[in-house]
Design brief:
Blueprint lengths: L1 H18 L40 E7 L7 E7 L6 E7 L11 H9 L3 E4 L9 H18 L4 E11 L1 H17 L6 E6 L13 H5 L6 E8 L7 H10 L7 E6 L2 E3 L2 E3 L14 H20 L2 H7 L5 H4 L3 E2 L2 E2 L4 E3 L28
Parallel strand pairs: 3-4, 3-5, 5-6, 6-7, 7-8
Antiparallel strand pairs: 1-2, 2-4, 8-13, 9-10, 11-12
Helix pairs in contact: 7-8
Length: about 350
């Protein structure tokens, strides 16, 4: 089933790429899949019932408004129902092709259930430049913050993104931190299988940005073992060059597992509302995000040991079923690539990458 899904994604990607006048800008393509909220996870291992990664107690409310840079679409704000003061907010940049909010709806609802806010901005998949996609995300994020100050607390923020959005989060967060002053009381980055990181609408180069991130920034970078779309070297480059101290960042490598005959596959579409929405999403992503929010926004030292534990047992240990355990997370401050570049569709050494000189 996974093989067929990956083949389907590649076919759709090729079709979209052929239609675009910016074929060198493209990332992975994907279609929104049916939401699986309030149903059991695929596979034998279910959601955690307590601790980090367990669903929160808030009901989820949603506000939608017209996307200022993408006609016919809407920006969505997910927040805890009934709040009376603004809450720390996660600004999420979706993967290429993930324009429908349903693609990552479980993630947005998870954030809101935990008492925080998630902002989703769709950007156009084809017929626009990378700069326009970054501009769309930026204007959606800033309009949400400006129009809903009673919901969004810009003094405590996280920037999170997957694939194209993972690469975009670097530039967008820097702009928000330095030009807008967002995150003065707590800020973090959470990038997943990132694509190329471009410099957009700024006099600085990306390298200068990386060397001048605010000192209170924290970071998780994740890559997935069976990802054959984005070269892990792109994530490694940003992780090593950003000036966040090793004590405040972790590089996390997630491996596939087989438990009780079910395959937990760490491919490029993790996490999403893909065919398989399973324990990898909750334990590999949501659990660490939950702890990162608690540490960054509330200063909880126990949360740091889960989110940025530098390989602590509570960070790397994954759940088990009938005596069979999921593969533990690999955590390091000095990541190195495990595979040659030709494995990947988008390689760090490609001329399209504006940071190609940092790929060695």
């Amino acid at each position: 089933m996974k093989t067929l899904l990956n083949l389907w994604l590649i076919i759709i990607f090729i079709a979209i790429s052929a239609c675009s006048q910016y074929t060198n800008d493209t990332d992975e393509a994907a279609s929104p899949l049916q939401s699986k909220l309030d149903t059991s996870l695929d596979g034998p291992i279910q959601r955690p019932v307590s601790g980090y990664g367990a669903d929160g107690s808030y009901e989820v409310a949603e506000i939608d408004f017209s996307n200022p840079q993408y006609a016919g679409t809407q920006v969505s704000i997910f927040y805890p129902k009934g709040i009376t003061s603004p809450r720390p907010t996660i600004f999420f940049s979706h993967p290429f092709g993930g324009e429908e909010k349903e693609y990552n709806i479980e993630l947005y609802n998870f954030i809101a259930k935990k008492g925080y806010v998630a902002v989703f901005v769709p950007y156009r998949t084809i017929d626009v430049s990378v700069d326009h996609r970054y501009q769309t995300l930026w204007e959606g994020f800033t309009k949400a913050a400006a129009d809903y100050p009673n919901i969004i607390d810009t003094l405590k923020v996280g920037f999170m993104g997957h694939s194209f959005g993972g690469g975009a989060s670097i530039d967008l967060s820097y702009k928000a931190f330095t030009e807008k002053g967002w995150g003065q009381n707590g800020r973090f980055l959470f990038t997943m299988a990132p694509w190329y990181s471009f410099n957009w609408n700024s006099p600085l180069t990306t390298q200068q940005q990386l060397q001048s991130f605010p000192s209170n920034t924290k970071m998780i970078t994740q890559v997935y073992d069976e990802d054959d779309v984005n070269d892990h070297r792109m994530a490694i480059d940003i992780f090593k060059n950003i000036n966040i101290s090793n004590a405040e960042k972790d590089f996390i490598y997630i491996k596939s597992s087989s438990v009780n005959g079910y395959n937990y596959v760490t491919d490029h579409v993790m996490p999403s509302s893909r065919t398989a929405f399973d324990a990898l999403d909750y334990y590999g992503v949501y659990r660490l995000l939950d702890a990162m929010m608690d540490y960054s926004f509330n200063g909880n030292s126990n949360a740091k040991n889960v989110a940025l534990g530098n390989g602590s047992a509570v960070q790397v240990t994954m759940p088990s079923y009938n005596g069979q355990s999921m593969a533990p997370l690999e955590v390091t401050d000095n990541p190195t690539p495990k595979y040659l570049q030709f494995k990947y569709q988008f390689r760090c050494g490609d001329s399209t990458n504006p940071r190609v000189s940092y790929c060695n």
